[in-house]
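Predict the 3D structure for this chain.
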Amino acid sequence: MSSHVLLHSISLGRRFLWRPLDTEGFEDTTGTTEAELTAPVINAHSSSSYSRLTFKRGAPMKLQIPVPWGRLACLTWGPVEGRPVLCLHGWMDNANTFQKLVPLLPQDRRYIALDFSGHGQSSHLSPGSSYDYKNYVKDLYITLEALNYRQISIIGHSMGGVIGTVFAYLFPDMVDKLGLIDSYGFFPSPLEILLNRERKVIAGGLHLKRKRDPTVYSPEGALKRLLDANNSLTEQSARILLERGTKEVPGGVIFSRDINVTRQLIPNFTLDQCLGLMKEIQASILTILASDGMFASIENRTTRAAQWSDLVQGFQSSLKERYQLELIQGNHFVHLNEPEKVAGLIGRFLQDEDSGSAGQ
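Done. Predicted structure below.
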């Protein structure tokens, strides 16, 4: 067997995807005791030297799911038989946003961090397609079908929290716990704003940015570009996102995301509609808000403050003891910059057997 490639088989329901898997993130554990192993490798052959490989602690495994437009790329941690936790990233980010958090969470779970279509290492949608929340919900559903999961927990950051919430009210029996990081799960707006937003998206769809040669940056140039666009990221956090969010080309690197993901369409609902939809959710919810996060802006503290309060009251009324709200010090990327601030809250939430109620 080549020292650089493993022939790796991933069971996808009744389908199988054979692919080369980089050995980065693995180590030969010959002579290692069972207690020192953190997770088994999914093997194509049970009686081979593959069984002598395992994860380095905290290092994820790469997984790909075939879709008609290409692939959905994921990172996974933990034992294959563990209770599944789907980790959903924010807008224009990627699965690496959970690289520092997941190793601090309960190690008996199976964590799957998905790159939404057009993000990270997942394929772009076909030309002419637009990105909206229904595409991302479909990505999540496809992933669960491929991995044959019937019930999951979800951790969602920012937009990922919104997508997780949509999934939780559309498929309430499939979600037992929903952890929201700097996200309320809904983003309500007055009717007129919703109508104007829809008009702009439809009209803008006629002028979707055509594929063109992307800008080539030096690695440090790409880092500067990302930090200039997002002052909530530390340099280390930005490098973590860039590791999965760029790819090497002659002369440097390019951003791997589809330029058209910038035309984001979030779920368009009024506050009353949001309050009605949340009643469909059977999962327990943990909402973690950062003191200097997305909702700390002047607008969100003034003109939008009432709607956030109404959402919280709606959750408390609908979910009662199944809803938990926590405020922590940090910014929008606290889970990546300072994961220890949220790891304990999320870990206890995942392990609390009384909090999950989906399907009961």
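The chain has ten helices and 14 strands.
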